Amino acid sequence: MRPDHPFGIQTLPYGSFARPDGRARVGVAIGDHILDLSAAWPTLAPAEENLFSSGSLDRFLAAGPVLWDRVRSALTRWLGDEREGEHVHGFLLPAAEAVMLLPFTVADYVDFYASEYHAANLGRMFRPGTDPLTPNWKHLPIGYHGRAGTIVVSGTPVPRPRGQRRTADGSITVGPSLRLDIEAELGFVVGVPTTIGEQVPLSAFDQHVFGVCLVNDWSARDIQAWEYVPLGPFLGKSFATSVAPWIVPLAALEEARTAPPPRTPRPVAYLDDSDEARWGLDVRLKVAINGTEVSEPRFRDMYWTAAQQLAHMTVNGASLRTGDLFASGTISGPAEQSRGSLIELTWNGREPLEINGGRRTFLEDGDEVVITATAPGPGGAVVGLGEVRGRVTPGGGRAAAPRGARHGEGNG
After folding, report:
1. Active site residues
2. CATH code for the domain of 53
């Protein structure tokens, strides 16, 4: 393994995969290989032989931080020491031979709207001449509930969604979305559950959240525009959300932790992290469409942190379940090349992108979107988050390539 591999000993992400025999297994990526934990763990740690036997991360996520740390320490020892490595060599397989699966059972899905740059860009598009941010935006992390059942693993085709939309003359039609978009996001995976009525303070974030993964929250902007007032996103978001197959533990991102941007006004007490651990993250994303890189968002630009999102999500006493997934919302920054959605990159279709010699506003059938990300690791190493990819298929009827319809705000 080359020393600068993003899936080196500093990363050790967890996933679920199928071997040629078709059985689901839990694995840890190391370089271009996967350690089959479902097979190796009973041999190496027989007292906890069933921890990975189901082929998913569910039991491991629920086990909590003490066991998370113990497993990571054991893996670091086994995979980082040549003598110890002899014990695991027979449990390694080339990653190219594995079929990656959804790594955990998604319990609930919540998507936030945490980038000030993204929210302000949309406000300038759709509310020109007024404050681009809504009055509540800097007081709480805005979010909505999505559909856990339409979370799909990277590589799963994304059928173009159908729904109602309003045409330029004001009439209502039903058909395939003409303004299919992407949203480059970071997702956070909950391990330790809570009971109803229990609030999770900022200080307990890493006692409940196991790790992170890349997310593409596909968005049908025309369907969303017609439905989102007054209750927010629904069919324009619920058709598919793609996640990367590898969950990177928070422990791998220690070197990436950074201070979040200054907040004005100062958040209310349960969201005030000025005296708390820093949970800004220097994660650097790249977005490509059909092989052409179109954006480089940075997560460190996000106004609200994941710790604040979790605190807000539970302040009313809502419970957490193992496998809850909450996503950051579109990651966008101050520069044009750091915008994490097509609605921003093309300024609502007015400024088409050049992709493979063609001019493009929103996604066409056959387009493949790939989002990748890295973060700084110890000693100058790079922590990789893998990739989340998806290709648009015709779905419920073919849709003409979108060419700049001019309506469609929504959060995410």
Report:
1. 118
2. 2.30.30.230
